[in-house]
Design goal:
This protein is an alpha/beta fold. It has one domain: 3-Layer(aba) Sandwich (Rossmann fold). A hairpin with a 5-residue loop joins strand 5 and strand 6. It is globular, with a radius of gyration of 19 Å.
């Protein structure tokens, strides 16, 4: 038997090569990064937004696919309020003031506070449509903000979209480290490389004495997870009021604190450039 060229259309063999959905024919997406967390409340969407902004500042064309359909917050962080528009070609993403392209369920609602009361398969179907039906155009880095956990939507993303790498977001608590391992083990099951861990809300700097305060623990448990799986800690982001204010005011793209710099450097140098 000849060596596999991964062209399944001309092959009669049955194998376990994943059959990913193709993006819209007018989309040219070079790299896809999924941002995941084992549990909610760790700041995954904020980290996604900061990573996209950091890569955008490096001069790359960036996009965010907000797969957290029932808890969408990406548009508000970027100050994007206009709904999505479409034509005979498909749906077009909204853009923030820096040109970062965004698609989110909140951009399809009449009011941003309207609940999305759907069951899992419907939500998963929408996420697939965000990939297949949206005219993304030229994108160097697409970040997918996945909902927390290892359920329907992350599974749909990993099975339907050719993801180049996963970033796991955690906080320092020992309890969270157990959940982080679940997310890493899921990625390994799906045979998708984990690029590293971002530890969010790692500490607080006292505004009076500049002393570091480890509010949620010293992060030792997350460090042990990184060693166990051979994964780097890409960033340790503090609990910083400037991040909260920027996200609340829709100015996350203007944030320039450098917390995501190391992660951005790894994304720039450590991923393949050819997705064929």
């Amino acid at each position: 038997m000849s060596e596999c060229d991964h062209n399944c259309s001309s092959c009669s063999e049955k194998c376990d090569v994943p059959q990913y959905d193709k993006p819209h024919e007018l989309s040219r997406i070079k790299r896809v990064i999924a941002v995941v967390s084992g549990k909610g409340g760790v700041g995954k969407s904020s980290v996604t937004a900061m990573l996209a902004s950091a890569m955008n500042k490096k001069g790359y064309k960036c996009a965010v696919l907000d797969a957290d359909v029932t808890g969408a917050s990406i548009p508000k962080m970027f100050g994007v309020n206009a709904g999505l528009i479409g034509d005979d070609n498909g749906i077009y993403p909204a853009e923030d003031e820096n040109g970062i392209k965004i698609v989110s369920s909140n951009l399809l609602l009449e009011h941003e506070t309207d609940p999305v009361v759907w069951r899992g398969p419907v939500i998963a179907g929408m996420v697939k449509q965000f990939w297949t039906d949206v005219v993304w155009g030229d994108v160097d880095y697409m970040f997918i903000d996945c909902p927390p956990g290892t359920g329907d939507v992350p599974l749909t993303v990993f099975q339907s979209i050719k993801v180049d790498g996963i970033i796991v977001v955690a906080t320092p608590q020992e309890l969270v480290s157990m959940i982080v391992e679940k997310a890493i083990n899921m990625a390994n099951m799906m045979k998708i490389p984990v690029l590293g861990i971002v530890q969010n809300m790692s500490y607080v700097i006292c505004p009076h004495c500049n002393e570091r305060i480890d509010v949620f623990g010293d992060g030792k448990a997350i460090g042990e997870v990184s060693v166990k799986f051979g994964l780097p800690i890409l960033a340790e982001i503090p609990y910083d009021a400037k991040i909260i204010q920027a996200a609340d005011s829709g100015k996350i793209g203007a944030l320039d604190l450098g917390y995501a710099a190391t992660a951005a450097d790894i994304l720039e140098s450590g991923l393949p450039t050819d997705r064929n």
